[in-house]
Amino acid sequence: MAVTVQELYRNYGILADAKDDLSQHKDAYQAILDGVKGGPKEKRLAAQFIPKFFSHFPELADAAINAQLDLCEDEDVSIRRQAIKELPCFAAGENLPRVADILTQLLQTDDSAEFNQVNTALISIFKIDAKGTLGGLFTQILQGEDIVRERAIKFLSAKLKTLPEEVMTKEVEDFIFTEIKKVLEDVTGEEFVLLMRILSGLKSLQTVSGRQQLVELVVEQAFLEQALNPADADSVDRLLQCTRQALPLFSKNVHSTRFVTYFCEHVLPNLSMLTSPVAELDIQLEVLKLLAEMSRFCGDMEKLETNLTILFEKLLEFMPLPPGEGENGENSGSEEPRLQFSYVECLLFSFHQLGKKLPDFLIDKINAERLKDFKIRLQYFARGLQVYIRQLRVALQGKTGDALKTEENKIKVVALKITNNINVLIKDLFHNPPSYKSSITLSWKPVQKTEVVGLKRPLGEEMAPSSATKKVSPLPRRDARQIYNPPSGKYSATIGNFSYEQRGGFRGGRGRGWGGRGNRSRGRIY
């Protein structure tokens, strides 16, 4: 026979009045546990009374926890919320990892209030025992259902950074690092980004050695020991995502050499054949921009001359010769080639950065004819550049404040940054011997202090020009930045900002590739 509300109150009174003799009233507590079999009123009372006296009846601990779990799965959402709210009361000693495991599974709820209640409960037991709570979370991340895994990772990504230092001790951070390395053996692209965000936020990994450890993790995911298949969109996507995660970690002490080497040896030769993982993405420019940003932090390179030659040859592809001239010395009427400023900015910058390491490359490492050809291309590009710079300066002259914030003028400001950058780099290369002393800020990067540039990389700051016949459309995302459609004309290239981030659908790690993760068990596994 089900326990009534009156009986629940009576047994509650017995326990409340017992004070130090509660253990003598096991039957009263058992009657309260039986309240979970009653109606809605009895269940609500049981959800409050069970945790209140839980610690006094260790022999009934399993029965009490299971009774509370039954209430956490009740059809009545108000009962579920009450039961979840009280779950942290059971999180003591050896029960805490189990409670954390349970709460992690409850993250799969679609009720927003209930979901928030679970989050609050998890945070509260974090402050009791962070390592034990993490044990429950990572058990579900490694073994739980896909939706639980996804929400548990997002919980960690959002909440760990809010916890105080006395909770996030060195021991706790070391545990997180160890567990995430296990998870990284089989991850989706989206999961990889979130997990790297978690690791990058750990205080113990803010040191040079810590950043180097993170780079090593990314290198493992990037498969830099394998040749790139340019036709495989997943492989290209993997490389892009891994490079993006590594980029903020590079500095004068944490070098990008392995990534720069891989881009020179495996990516640049296949640039035109790369399969974009996202239809709207200008994959060639995306790759060139990543290379340019990494090149600043490249250390000693084993095959520097070979890789610099590859980079030089790719630069020539985007620096056209002047239109041919007829026998009478006049222009033959050939169509003037299009000057792709954005591509050239990236390639020139990368060449300029690596050229510092081998300053005699343009003097002793290429033959005279090749150097002459390069100088002709530079001169022709510089002439077109000067025309475009003059046009832009005239268009922007006298404009300040709100006038510079119009769509058209924003485009022109970006274009002026690109062309000025190229102009500075070309002037350096025209020196005899070539100079590599000038310093520029890449056009898509915010102007910041030298030591900060390249260390802080906000998501979605990329700029993606395209060909004359193609316009780039923005991808939908919550924090999408404004996309600019550039001017078209004799010397213009498409100039704008393009936001790109991985949207799932590929998998990193040793086990299943970057395809799809297998379905896990369903149902309650408390």
Description:
The structure is a single chain. Helix content is 53%, strand content 1%. The protein has helices at residues 5-18, 26-33, 40-52, 61-72, 77-86, 95-105, 112-126, 130-143, 146-159, 170-183, 189-200, 208-222, 233-246, 257-267, 283-295, 304-317, 341-355, 361-365, 368-396, 407-430, and strands at residues 186-188, 507-509. The chain has a two-stranded antiparallel sheet. The longest helix is centred in the C-terminal third of the chain and has 29 residues, at 368-396. The two termini are 27 Å apart.
Instruction: Give the helix proportion (percent range).
Output: 40-55%
The string of secondary-structure elements, in order, is HHHHHHHHHHEHHHHHHHHHHE
Summed over residues and divided by their number, the pLDDT gives a mean of 84
Radius of gyration: 31 Å
List keywords for this structure.
disordered C terminus, 53% helix, 526 residues, mainly alpha, two-stranded antiparallel ribbon
